[in-house]
Design brief:
The complex is a heterodimer. Chain A contains 16 helices and no strands. Chain A is mainly α. Chain A folds into two domains: 152 residues, no CATH class; 161 residues, no CATH class. The longest helix of chain A has 33 residues. The longest helix of chain B is centred in the N-terminal third of the chain and has 25 residues. Classes of the chains: A mainly alpha, B alpha+beta. At the A-B interface, α1, α5 and α6 of A face α2, α9, β5 and β7 of B. Chain B: It holds the Pfam family CP_ATPgrasp_2. Chain B: This is Circularly permuted type 2 ATP-grasp protein. Chain B: It comes from Mesorhizobium liriopis.
Chain lengths: 313, 470
Amino acid sequence: MLLGRTANGLYWMNRYIERAENMARLVDAGLRMALTRSQSSAEEWASVIVSAGAENAYREKYDQFEVGPVTDFLLRDPANPSSVLSSIENARQNGRAVRTALTRETWESINEAWMSLKRMLADPIDERDLPSVLDAIKRETALIRGSFHGTMLRNEIFDFCQLGTFVERADNTARILDVKYYVLLPSISWVGSTLDTSQWESILRSVAAHRSYRWLYEGDYKPRQIADYLILNGRMPRSLAFCYRYLTESLRFLSQDYGVRHACHATAETTYAKLSNSTIKDIFDAGLHEFLSDFIRDNNQLSDQLASDFQFY
Amino acid sequence: MTAFDEMLPQVDGLRKPYTGYDRWLQTQQAQRLQDKMRDAERVFRKTGITFAVYGEEDAAERLIPFDIVPRIISGAEWRRLTLGIEQRVQAINAFLDDIYHRQEILRAGRIPKDLIARNAAFLPEMIGVRPPAGVYTHIIGIDVVRTSEDEFFVLEDNARTPSGVSYMLENRETMMQLFPELFQKVKVRPVENYPQLLRQSLSATRPEGSSSQPTIAVLTPGSYNSAYFEHAFLADQMGVQLVEGQDLRVVDGHVAMRTTEGYKQIDILYRRVDDAYLDPLTFKPDSALGVAGIMDVYRAGNVTIANAPGTGIADDKAIYSYMPEIVEFYTGRKALLKNVPTWRCSEADSLKYVLEHLGELVVKEVHGSGGYGMLVGPTSTKVEQDAFAAKLKSNPSNYIAQPTLSLSTCPIYTDAGLAPRHVDLRPFVLVSDRIQIVPGGLTRVALKEGSLVVNSSQGGGTKDTWVLDD
């Protein structure tokens, strides 16, 4: 038996942990682009902000897209509800509220991540320290994930955590792709120049897939392959197909435990079927941007349905 | 006057209960102990064993300082103490039942009627209500202080929602982590089965007609409450749900919680929410911490509320002064544990005496707790005393006064070695069809040299409390 409020706390705790990690990766990719491109990093930083879903909030505060303000806003601005600092605070607050549902190791890893990131992000970050700060964020979230997977019983508590993680991750990967979908379209004429290669690499890097891509595709950056990898490859842990494999699996466990199916089950299964039965050609033919917008909308709908189907409120 | 030290008394070197510990201590290097002290703080901070202090900026989470020297009680001392505590707890439950039913003790003229009728802690809503299994104080913490080898006094009966038991458990856990070898050398009675005992004890007070595997939940005001850690800890250790008011509602004449599969009935609610917030329909209408209609469910006998509403009348400081009479009235025997002599400022003679002796007395608010709103005469300035005297005169019945007891001390570990500090003791008592006391309790220690105030909100710390298996 699990309280609806607890399920809600577990779900959001994991969304926020995932979000903190994703923010660090986005900034990391942006930083890499800014370093490797000689001019106009502003455009790159702007797309980082858009990928983070923080454009409106950012524009309220700043006019320019530059490394200083962007990293500050995404990593440590308490006014940005999705900054790493806000995310880890929210994750920890949710974790504290559902503490009885977590193993001691899991709770301690969250609490320690919160303590150390709070300290690290207390003051503005010197640009020279950025790489080590980003590493630390990724390391802390990895430690949380490690203790979580190593110690948690695979029951409904685990399932609601998984739902939070993969709804957030799917949303993140889809948004990164959607912000840059135009560089993946075949109509772009400058294919092959160093410029777009770095754009593609940036996409892969922001979902931690730049190395594994090279193992699979032997270093050849081809836009269609990149899209295929991040959308349909079921073995790539941040792909949409991978996220939905785990979402449908967790939901199946819940329906077995509870003996009930809800609207969310149908939504997740429909999306998963679409991902399993499409080829990347189908998606490009029907329009990559349209596909991604629909996906983001359906993914949000799933999140709302989880809240009402499992009495989060 | 020098206080009685429980480890190293003035007269003869080392008290017997501490011999085993002392032998071990002599073999320890100072540096290692200092390292262990820092380890302890890290352990507490990491696990998030924190509390909040109201009214302090950025005090969201602070640690209660932990001292690594245990407070040790011999088996014989403990047996003596528990007899007195059992008697007192029995009397308190009989008193509560009487006061909400026939009020024999008032008819017999043993305590003044006004003291009950005009007391804010007396809940008229409880008149004629008999809680499931007849238990009022499922969990009660009796604060005991010691002044000499043989003298113990009860300072306070915490009959509402005594807190601190999580520290008793975590302190032991921490000590066993820091000094595992020590527990091989000294045989200490275990306390770690408290959560199971609590669960069994609560189960034994389930409402009539509920399943023999009743559903228990801990009701917390929420994660911003100063004792939230303890609420979560107890729920976790008992393996029951930790609920908030927003999770609960009355469904078909029962209290029920909103789960991922809909509403599920609760039989026993271990509430850590004050009476006033329990039911917005009966008490504070704007309370979001309780459950609308729970008092109706309670009166119908369909839920156990632990502790029962209205138990505050038994730990009121004005009632406290009548405890010797109360114990004798209900148990037919003299109280085994002493009360601290108490002047009720509502009585003219007493008030006069108190005003004349402010510099020697401790004056407390009748309904106060946590060490707030009190005057400790011997350590106060003349200005503070004058200000307090004015408050006293304007509302005498709000105050009681007690002599400053020479509380016993127990050494704490400082950078300069052992140093004596004043301590008190809160054993935790479980009441169902019987009374159970876990061998141990919460020892609070005033960390400031000479200070008598042990409350954590006033800079007190805690120690592991050992009852020897001898």
